[in-house]
Amino acid sequence: MIEHKANGIHIIADFKGMKNPFLIADDFTAAAKQTGATIEAEAHKSFEIGGITSVILLSESHLSAHTWPEQNYMAVDVFTCGDNCDPLKAIEFLSDKTGTIEIHIRIIGRGNERIPWELEDRIRSKKDFDRIRTVYYKLR
């Protein structure tokens, strides 16, 4: 678990070059569970071309995702509050599930304080992310 220094951690990620772009609702539910958050409600919409939009309401905030399989692209938004959740675990899970080549990550510390340094260090040195060119943005 990450000890948050802000009210919450908000991760916005663009997955580009997905090797497996066809996800199902259960994949996003599993990603949300990886954060350690409590799922309160879910809404999923599948499209004829294979894309999906998922929104998962968490007690600690939300996870939303939109896929464009014809472009091998997915946009993901994970926001968790409190000290018991790790939003980066959802990104890691979806990275493994999709075999993504490149992920652009933006991390926002919500509230008055900064994001924890250990989260920043994990993104930069993540051994699991060796196959991915992760572009890291820190917004304050």
Could you explain how this protein is built, in words?
The protein is globular, with a radius of gyration of 14 Å. The two termini are 22 Å apart. A hairpin with a 5-residue loop joins strand 2 and strand 3. It has one domain: 4-Layer Sandwich (S-adenosylmethionine decarboxylase), CATH 3.60.90.10. The protein is α+β, with helices and mostly antiparallel strands and 140 residues long. It is 21% helix and 41% strand. The C terminus is likely disordered. It is built from three helices and seven strands. Strands 2-3-4-5-1-6-7 form a seven-stranded mixed sheet, with helices on one face.
In short:
Helices cover 21% and strands 41% of the residues.
Protein topology:
Layout: E1 8-16, H1 25-34, E2 39-46, E3 52-58, E4 61-68, E5 73-81, H2 88-98, E6 102-110, H3 117-125, E7 133-139
Parallel strand pairs: 6-7
Antiparallel strand pairs: 1-5, 1-6, 2-3, 3-4, 4-5
Helix pairs in contact: 1-2
User: Which second-level CATH architecture applies?
Assistant: 4-Layer Sandwich
What order do the SSEs take from the amino end to the carboxyl end, as H and E? Answer: EHEEEEHEHE
Question: Any idea what the CATH superfamily is called?
Answer: S-adenosylmethionine decarboxylase
Major β-sheet, in short? 7 strands, mixed
Shape: globular
Oligomer class: single chain
Quantity of strands, as a count = 7
Proportion of β residues? Answer: 35-45%
* Low-pLDDT regions: 127-134, 136-140
Separation of termini? Answer: 22 Å
Rg for CA atoms: 14 Å
Classify the secondary structure makeup into a structural class: alpha+beta
Q: Per CATH, what is the topology?
A: S-adenosylmethionine decarboxylase
Mean pLDDT: 82
Helix content: 10-25%
CATH class: Alpha Beta
Placed side by side, the strands forming the largest sheet appear as: 2-3-4-5-1-6-7
Total of DSSP H or I helical runs spanning 4+ residues: 3
